[in-house]
Structure to design on (384 residues):
């Protein structure tokens, strides 16, 4: 592989280096993957207005998300099993984010535990919470996030039931991987990954094993999710979690203006317009198409963030132009991690920063906080 110039380059390299089971886990959507594809395709439809002969000196991308300063309004999305894309993946990604000055969000379903990530970083990170039936366990998770000084809780509401991803079923996805002959042969073709995995003790769900009652190992992710995730989750639970946490709360997985109103009523600090990267309800619209109506419904009452399909700094600025205060990247940083570890996550962020900065300049702006709909060509906005 030659020089890396785009997120796509990182993806290609990650595909070569990460065992198929885990590469497929990242690069997959549910059922026909139509929403997964739409997340990217709809971004590409949005055209910019090029402006010229405007002073473009002293440009800045600095902004805030939920009141916290960010080097650019881009955060790393919570992703499960990140430590299977690369040994110690969560710690490496959190470090890259910290050095860059953007938030890192640790998933409930991470390999490295909350305490482990806290011990290996110095900036506060965000913690993403899945609500499970065992409320004692949830209370303890919230306490652990507080003890680790996490500076926001991201409460994911769109995974009461698990979307079917065909590849995961075929690959028998689990952490550590189930050793079928095909898996063993595939692992043998990824020696770099394997050697690093042999060099770490972090192979299971660090937040859960040894913390949740009667969970000592986790053979199949989908079976476990079906047993543990709470299908009865309601807005009353959101209220309960908000009270228990008491800090900055971000609600993730909002796709409908009605739900956006409920999220705003809940008193949360932000919501994330997200279809879980096309991994849950296949057939839902793309996130970028859902964004404008949600901003219109609640944008004055709650900070609106978005994720899904962001593959460049150009996509970041498109989302900002449509009213997002910040965006999250999932797969882009996972590709960076799988390709090149911590340096790959840094490269991913640098690529996005550079594209964001240049696109802002081409549109005639110097401050990312000035970005709004005026930089977009009317008639090219999906859902808008
Ligand atoms: C491999 C993978 C694992 C994920 N795990 C979680 C998770 O544990 N919790 C969560 O709230 N969202 C999870 N998501 C969704 C991401 O937070 C985010 O919504 C999505 O990746 C954004 O789309 P993008 O990958 O196109 O950037 C996951 C996404 C991926 C790709």
């Amino acid at each position: 592989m030659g020089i890396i110039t785009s997120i796509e380059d990182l993806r290609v390299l990650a595909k070569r280096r990460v065992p198929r089971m885990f590469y497929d886990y990242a690069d997959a959507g549910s059922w026909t993957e139509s929403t997964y594809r739409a997340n990217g395709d709809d971004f590409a439809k949005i055209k910019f207005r090029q402006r010229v002969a405007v002073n473009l000196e002293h440009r800045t991308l600095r902004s805030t998300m939920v009141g916290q300063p960010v080097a650019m309004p881009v955060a790393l999305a919570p992703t499960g099993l990140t430590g299977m894309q690369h040994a110690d993946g969560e710690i490496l990604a959190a470090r890259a984010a910290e050095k860059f000055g953007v938030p890192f969000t640790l998933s409930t379903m991470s390999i490295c535990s909350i305490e482990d990530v806290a011990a290996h970083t110095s900036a506060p990170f965000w913690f993403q919470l899945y609500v499970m039936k065992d409320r004692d366990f949830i209370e303890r998770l919230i306490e652990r996030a507080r003890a680790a000084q996490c500076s926001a809780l991201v409460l994911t509401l769109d995974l009461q039931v698990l979307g079917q991803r065909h590849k995961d079923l075929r690959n028998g996805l689990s952490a550590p991987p189930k050793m079928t002959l095909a898996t063993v042969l595939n692992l043998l073709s990824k020696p770099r990954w394997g050697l690093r995995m042999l060099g770490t003790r972090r192979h299971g769900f660090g937040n859960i094993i040894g913390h949740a009652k009667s969970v000592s190992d986790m053979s199949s992710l989908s079976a476990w999710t079906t047993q543990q995730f709470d299908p009865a989750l309601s807005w009353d639970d959101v209220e309960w979690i908000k009270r228990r946490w008491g800090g900055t709360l971000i609600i993730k997985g909002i796709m409908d203006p009605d739900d956006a109103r409920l999220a705003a009523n809940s008193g949360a600090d932000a919501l994330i317009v997200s279809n879980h990267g096309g991994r849950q309800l296949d057939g839902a619209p793309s996130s970028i198409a859902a964004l404008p109506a949600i901003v219109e419904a609640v944008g004055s009452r709650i900070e609106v963030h978005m994720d899904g399909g962001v593959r460049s700094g150009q996509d970041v600025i498109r989302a900002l132009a449509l009213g997002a205060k910040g965006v999250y990247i999932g797969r882009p940083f996972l590709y960076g991690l799988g390709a090149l570890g911590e340096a790959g996550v840094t490269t991913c962020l640098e690529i996005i920063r550079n594209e964001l900065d240049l696109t802002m300049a081409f549109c005639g702006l110097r401050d990312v906080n000035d970005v709004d709909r005026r930089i977009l060509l009317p008639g090219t906005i999906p859902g808008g």
The mean pLDDT is 95. Residues 25-26, 39, 77-80, 107, 109, 128, 156, 252, 274, 276-277, 279, 307-310, 329-331 surround flavin mononucleotide (CB under 6 Å).
